[in-house]
Known about the structure:
With 160 residues, the protein is mostly helical. Helix content is 80%, strand content 0%. It has a single domain (3-154), classed as Ferritin, CATH 1.20.1260. The chain is elongated, with a radius of gyration of 17 Å. This is Ferritin-like metal-binding protein YciE.
Amino acid sequence: MKIGPVLVSIHRSEMNLYHDLLQLSARYVTEPEVHHVAKDLAQWSRNHIAKLAEIATDYGEALQAETSDARASKHAEQHTHSESLGIDNPSGLALLWDLRTIHMTASGIAVQWTMLSQGAKALQQSDLLSVVTQCQPETQRQQTWAQAQIKQLSPQVLSS
């Protein structure tokens, strides 16, 4: 059974998404939609991390159930995209890049949830399927939110 490595991979990806969403929220406090929603969406990933850690023990994996906000806050002030692009407006192209990262990470996690769902069904693992059923729709909503923000902001940012 190869469920354990998939759980480890999703867990790692959810940790990254959690921190990326917190960083996004901290970087764009002047963008209320981004700031508040990103913070809320980060909590979904935090819950996913806890659920994955709980179920992982059944598949021989020991995963961290909690994550620290220190990594996100440490890097939040570093506007790496802005600096590398030479952009003065942190809510312009840099925000689109950050949203793209969120979208891509959430998309990858959504695919992993699909893999895990199919494996859980094949192995008739109802507890695992229950976790997937709870978490997968939230990941898809994280992905959809990032894409909607990109669609909304792109015309304005790219044409200015």
